[in-house]
């Protein structure tokens, strides 16, 4: 009986020592892997990032959209803010796409026509579902149009997918102008700062003749989604497109929109650390 008692005590002692070693030792084969430990420690950071970009409970108001617009201070160089941006229309964009050049004529020509029409009408993302505001800036023969608006999320994501398809569907095509002249249009990807919840940028170049003289129209197009709201920038002209100004508008504009969505007043001038 004494031998049995001693054996039982030995087994209990061994089990207790084994439990302590498994939880404290980093070299044991049953310890959680370093990958698992990193996943646990990074979970709070991931959660914080997700909640910071979540849509607010209140929709964007008209006053908020107006406040979120960029100013001259958000752009470098000599841009001058104007009050006539809502009436801007570039007649060079009133073109009819030649469908005969495409492999899938109907699909591709419709996409390219929609793109040209959207540029002319300043509604590439479709009609806003809520508040919207716009402003414009001029520098020589170049114009920068900046818009902030609220949309339905599904429709907004669909438009972003469509924009992303354009450098493939409409990489190069011909369009006939209102004067009967044929112009060549190219659409390529244009990188943007990694801001907002989603973003996409491209550059369109149109070459041809207008009024008997050769012309080259270059436009940057940039869209950034922040929650259910979006920023749209079109920038350029016959003097080309200043890509740095497009990036400034996108970067500083996203900061302003986030401030408005989170109930803060945007700084009058952008921070040097943006």
Write structural notes for this entry:
The structure is a single chain. The protein is α+β, with helices and mostly antiparallel strands and 274 residues long. The protein has 6 helices and 9 strands, in the order H-H-H-E-E-H-E-E-H-E-E-E-E-E-H. Strands 1-3-4-9-8-7-6-5-2 form a 9-stranded antiparallel beta sheet, sandwiched between helices. Helix 3 runs antiparallel to helix 6 (243-261) and helix 4 crosses helix 5 (153-169).
Task: For this entry, give a set of tags.
alpha+beta; disordered N terminus; 274 residues; globular; 9 strands; 37% helix; nine-stranded antiparallel sheet; 6 helices
Characterize this entry briefly.
The chain has helices spanning 2-24, 34-52, 62-68, 105-121, 153-169, 243-261; strands at 80-82, 95-97, 132-139, 142-150, 172-177, 182-189, 198-210, 213-226, 229-237. The protein is an alpha+beta fold.
């Amino acid at each position: 009986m004494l031998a049995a008692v001693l054996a039982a005590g030995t087994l209990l002692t061994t089990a207790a020592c084994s439990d302590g070693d498994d939880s404290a030792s980093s070299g044991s084969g049953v310890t959680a892997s370093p990958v698992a430990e990193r996943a646990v420690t990074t979970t709070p950071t991931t959660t914080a990032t997700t909640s910071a970009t979540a849509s607010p409970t209140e929709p964007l108001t008209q006053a908020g959209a107006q406040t979120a617009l960029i100013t001259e201070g958000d752009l470098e160089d000599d841009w001058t803010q104007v009050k006539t941006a809502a009436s801007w229309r570039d007649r060079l964009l009133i073109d009819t796409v030649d469908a005969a050049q495409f492999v899938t004529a109907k699909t591709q020509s419709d996409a390219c026509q929609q793109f040209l029409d959207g540029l002319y009408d300043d509604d590439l993302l479709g009609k806003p579902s809520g508040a919207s505001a716009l402003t414009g800036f001029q520098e020589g023969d170049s114009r920068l149009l900046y818009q902030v608006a609220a949309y339905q999320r599904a429709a907004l994501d669909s438009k972003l997918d469509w924009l992303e398809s354009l450098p493939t569907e409409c990489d190069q095509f011909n369009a006939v102008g209102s004067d009967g002249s044929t112009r060549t249009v190219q659409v390529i990807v244009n990188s943007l700062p990694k801001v907002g919840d989603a973003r996409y940028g491209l550059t369109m170049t149109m070459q041809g003749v207008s009024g008997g003289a050769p012309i080259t129209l270059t436009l940057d197009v940039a869209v950034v989604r922040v929650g259910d709201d979006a920023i749209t920038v079109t920038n350029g002209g016959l003097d080309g497109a200043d890509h740095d100004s497009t990036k400034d508008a996108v970067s500083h504009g996203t900061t302003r929109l986030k401030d408005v969505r989170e109930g803060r007043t945007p700084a009058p001038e952008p921070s040097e650390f943006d």
